[in-house]
């Protein structure tokens, strides 16, 4: 057998692993394209509807959701008594990242815990610095303010949080259901949670996917 | 001291416990009036948004919510991966009742577990027999059918469950967001969950309370 024939045969049998490598890279590319990553915070007093609607809708949108508990990964009692188990402690979040979006659900107690958490602050600052998305709803925009996030941007919040957000002139407050300004997404409350979550899906995965997810949930979007 | 004076003094000092008894009964009456009771089922594969929106909205409506896990009270993995802890095992529900409403959230896995549970069946039959409310959403009306509940009534369900519900001619299927027929409340899916839950609040506590709860959640109802 001539040398050229030997090389040809080895190529056909993929002895150099070229096809295998290509397949592997295509799969990784495909997985990478599929697996946008979200971190959703959860603390005692978090509004369970705002939390669950975000986590569930993002998962339906093909986004890999990780739930980070404050102060740790033990069972969390939400604002109306539902007990939910986080996936990880907030201290583990940095090593699991980077995340394409950090989601802060509302609820007074939960938002206060997020506002007071140095770990949440560090994650938010790194997220903003790198231009990735931050999304906060209801009382949670107050946690953005506490950590000096989204300064000068258009934002919204639960109506009763408006004065607190407006004080100091750091934000341009709008009364829309969902406000998107660059990489900052804010929203008003439980009744705007579906729009809030679908806006995140649209921003990360596209309008078509967001519409498909909305249709499956029997929601006009 | 004359006997009449002694009796008068004892009465004033409430030595016979008459006032105490009256106060106690007034408090019990007031608590009784306040504390309508709901049992919400939760099983592996339950749709977490439908579950949480029901539990949270009813709690906001002043209804005492108990979460009954199937098969027991251990942590439940819902349809999109959120882990929720029930308050009690379904086997404990009978002794905690009676409940003013039994709520069955959807999600294929959860609805199947509810359809196959003899304990759920027994609770539903007793509930229907005594004229108390049964509420099911999304895939959960199939569990009503499995247990022979609401026969001949107007109902609805998640659209893809329609054929299964219609087969056998046991129900009059309607395409409304929420269908109320006597003590049976059914609804379609995640996007109709707020209307479903607020309808339960209205039925148990009144229109005014339902409107107040809706307003707090920034929902038109």
UniProtKB/TrEMBL annotation, chains A, B:
GO terms for biological process: glycolate biosynthetic process; glyoxal metabolic process; regulation of phosphatidylinositol 3-kinase/protein kinase B signal transduction; response to oxidative stress. One of its GO terms (cellular component) is nucleus. It is found in: Cytoplasm. Gene3D superfamilies: 3.40.50.880. It comes from the Eukaryota. Keywords: Cytoplasm, Oxidation. Residues 36-202 form the DJ-1/PfpI domain. SUPFAM superfamilies: Class I glutamine amidotransferase-like (SSF52317). Its main location: cytoplasm. This is DJ-1/PfpI domain-containing protein. It comes from Phaedon cochleariae.
């Amino acid at each position: 057998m001539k040398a050229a024939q030997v090389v040809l045969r080895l190529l056909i049998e993929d002895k150099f692993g070229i096809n295998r490598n290509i397949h592997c890279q295509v799969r990784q590319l495909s997985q990478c394209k599929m697996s946008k990553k979200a971190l959703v915070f959860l603390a005692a007093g978090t509004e369970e509807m705002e939390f669950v609607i975000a986590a569930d809708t993002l998962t339906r949108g093909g986004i890999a959701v990780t739930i980070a508990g404050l102060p740790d990964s033990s069972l969390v009692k939400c604002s109306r008594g539902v007990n939910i188990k986080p996936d990880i402690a907030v201290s583990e979040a940095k090593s699991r990242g980077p995340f394409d979006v950090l989601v802060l659900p509302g609820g007074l107690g939960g938002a206060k815990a997020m506002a007071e958490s140095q770990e949440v602050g560090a994650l938010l600052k790194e997220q903003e610095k790198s231009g990735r998305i931050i999304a906060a709803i209801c009382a949670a925009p107050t946690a953005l303010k506490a950590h000096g996030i989204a300064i000068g941007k258009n934002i919204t919040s639960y109506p009763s949080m408006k004065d607190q957000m407006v004080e100091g002139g750091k934000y341009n407050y709008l009364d829309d259901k969902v406000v998107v300004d660059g990489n900052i997404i804010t929203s008003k409350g439980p009744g705007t949670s579906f729009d809030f979550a679908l806006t995140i899906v649209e921003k990360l995965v596209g309008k078509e996917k967001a519409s498909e997810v909305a249709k499956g949930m029997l929601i006009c979007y």
